[in-house]
Write a structure and sequence with these properties.
With 178 residues, the chain is α+β, with helices and mostly antiparallel strands. The protein has two domains: 95 residues, Hypothetical protein ph0010, domain 1 (Glycoprotein, Type 4 Pilin, 2-Layer Sandwich), CATH 3.30.700.20; 62 residues, Hypothetical protein ph0010, domain 2 (Dna Ligase, domain 1, 2-Layer Sandwich), CATH 3.30.1490.150. Helices cover 25% and strands 26% of the residues. The protein has four helices and eight strands; from the N terminus they run H-H-E-E-H-E-E-E-E-H-E-E. Strand 5 and strand 6 form a beta hairpin. Helix 1 packs across helix 3. It is globular and about 50 Å long. The two termini are 20 Å apart.
Length: 178
């Protein structure tokens, strides 16, 4: 599929992979030689929205694959087909979807919620074997309390439980115009 070069925008790459996957039923082969932007390893979240509403979101906190291109490809298809909150995306829906890709920076352990800012940092909460993550700068999440509360709810961590907090920054990519 990508005979020449990969799209330089990660969200455009996610769309290209998703179009191929929904048509062919398998992931495309990525080139052996990757642009430097895709050679690194990082946790990646791919979010799909339809009419401004979440339609799928899957990601990895830590890199699970050899490079960022593979991470984006796997998470894009998972967001479209394996998010348990939604039915799988159909080919007919693709034109109605907007896609964003968040590249996660390193996790930083913090001592208290005072070190969070929902506009600038995502949060990861851990308690025992449970963990929940919420990306930063999400519509409708305006306070640290809301951010931590949603992450705890995702993890099944009850309010008031003793937990570890981590913050991280993301680089968010939306699709290119055109």
């Amino acid at each position: 599929m990508f005979q020449a070069e990969l799209p330089l925008n990660p969200a455009d790459l996610a769309r290209s992979v998703l179009e191929y996957y929904l048509k062919e039923g398998r992931l495309p082969e990525l080139p052996d030689r990757l642009p430097p932007e895709y050679s690194a390893r990082a946790g990646v979240f791919v979010s799909l929205k339809k009419n401004g509403r979440l339609r799928g979101c899957i990601g990895t906190v830590e890199p699970m694959r050899d490079n960022m291109a593979e991470e984006i490809a796997a998470n894009a298809t998972s967001a479209a087909t394996r998010d348990p909150r939604f039915s799988p995306v159909s080919r007919d829906e693709l034109p109605e979807l907007s896609i964003s890709v968040d590249i996660l920076g390193p996790m930083e352990k913090i001592e208290s919620e005072k070190e969070l800012d929902p506009c600038n940092y995502g949060v990861l909460v851990r308690c025992g074997g449970r963990s929940g993550l919420l990306l930063p700068n999400l519509e409708g999440v305006n306070t640290v309390e809301e951010q931590v509360g949603i992450a705890c709810q995702k993890a099944g961590i009850a309010p008031g439980m003793d937990m570890e907090l981590y913050r991280f920054k993301v680089t968010r990519f939306g699709e290119s115009a055109g």
